[in-house]
Amino acid sequence: MGSAEEDSAERRPLNRRLAPNSGNPAAPNRAPSVASTIHARLRSEIVSLARKPGEPLAEKAITEAYGVSRTPVREAILRLADEGLVDIFPRSGTFVARIPQHGLSEAVVIRMALEEKSARLAAERATRSQVMVVQAIVEQLRESQAAGDQAAFHAADEHFHATLAEMAGYPGIWALVQQVKIQVDRYRRLTLPQEGRMQRVIEEHQAILDAVAAHDPDRAALHMNGHLGALIASVEDIRHVNPDYFAGGGHGD
């Protein structure tokens, strides 16, 4: 019985209940800023897929790369584990977490509810100058597509949605969306290489903007929901191409 429990513990990721600075009471005086920097960089690498799902995350290599002690690195890794971006397995190692397929639909549904409201309010309140600003962002999407620059395309996409929330008068909506969409962002990076995907996204953004410019809240909300709902429609296809990047859904996880 004890052996089974130990085996189970090895396969189960640790959580934040582990104290990041246990045994080193002096570390908190200087570690938070260093840990925050490391956390931000690792987070960016994971979300952008520069560090692939399932890839080992070597604590020693990170400490050497940043020239720091292990304490801030551990703190950064534990914060990433809290966000579901890292899995820590006792006696097995630390790995970039796979994308949880079961959580994608829920995150998109929450995002749809929030951004539908953004679209409606933006359509009611948008000024001509604001519409011109967002149209320029759509042009940035087109330029990024033409250049084959997926990172710039993703950044312009984010800018579009954030600016729409500002047009609505509630930029806090976008702040809430960012809290729930971190796994969706990782998944979205996998969708961009699909043939025709970036062009479809541009057309969807243009349709949203056209409805906002026409001051048509119902149409703006409809196009926003269609745009975000399309993310979930292609999950199985994306997983088929990248089976090792996902957790859940009956593929041996």
Please give a structural write-up.
- With 253 residues, the protein is mainly alpha-helical.
- The chain folds into two domains: 2-97, Winged helix-like DNA-binding domain superfamily/Winged helix DNA-binding domain (Arc Repressor Mutant, subunit A), CATH 1.10.10; 100-247, GntR ligand-binding domain-like (Four Helix Bundle (Hemerythrin (Met), subunit A), Up-down Bundle), CATH 1.20.120.530.
- The protein has twelve helices and four strands.
- Strand 1 (86-89) and strand 2 form a beta hairpin.
- Helix 5 crosses helix 7 (150-168) and helix 5 packs parallel to helix 10 (197-213).
- The model is unreliable at 1-12 and 14-31 (pLDDT under 50).
In brief:
By secondary structure, the protein is mainly alpha-helical. It is built from twelve helices and four strands, in the order H-H-H-H-E-E-E-H-H-H-H-H-H-H-H-E.
> Could you say what the CATH architecture of the largest domain is?
Up-down Bundle
Mean model confidence by pLDDT: 87
Helicity range: 55-70%
User: Largest sheet, order of strands side by side?
Assistant: 1-2
User: Can you identify the CATH class of the largest domain?
Assistant: Mainly Alpha
Oligomeric state as shown:
single chain
The third-level CATH topology of the largest domain is Four Helix Bundle (Hemerythrin (Met), subunit A)
Pattern of helices and strands: HHHHEEEHHHHHHHHE
SS-derived structural category: mainly alpha
The overall number of domains is 2
The biggest sheet, with number of strands, parallel, antiparallel or mixed sense and barrel status, is: 2 strands, antiparallel
User: Which band does the percent of strand residues land in?
Assistant: under 5%
Total E-strand runs? 4
Q: With helices defined by DSSP (H or I, 4 residues minimum), what is the helix count?
A: 12
Q: What overall form do the CA principal axes indicate?
A: elongated
